[in-house]
Amino acid sequence: MAERSRNYRGPWPRTPGRLLGTAAVRLYQLTLSGFIGNTCRHLPTCSEYAYEAIARHGLWAGVWLGLFRVMRCGPGGTHGIDNVPPRLAPELRWWAPWRYRGVGRGRHASC
């Protein structure tokens, strides 16, 4: 029987930062998420998106991607399917986190 999980199951390097970040997201999913309710307007949910973003792209980029995704999910924001890009565009640098804002709208993704 295939193992099912709501979080990303693909391969990713288990570095200390990524483990810390994914553990924080998982802790949120197990505790606070139940109180906030299922109100995300995207698939995957915002916490699943943040988990996968941290696992794929590291703690720094993943946290920024997750933050901007939560901001897009609010009132007047976007909705629908919004997957984490497999690779990020080269112009996304660690010292310019505001550039991560456009990733969910189809920009800055390098397939």
Automatic annotation (TrEMBL):
It is a peripheral membrane protein. It is found in: Cell membrane. It comes from the Bacteria. Keywords: Cell membrane, Membrane. It holds the Pfam family YidD. One of its GO terms (cellular component) is plasma membrane. InterPro entries: Membr_insert_effic_factor_YidD. Its main location: membrane. NCBIfam families: membrane protein insertion efficiency factor YidD. Belongs to the UPF0161 family. Could be involved in insertion of integral membrane proteins into the membrane. This is Putative membrane protein insertion efficiency factor. It comes from Nitratireductor mangrovi.
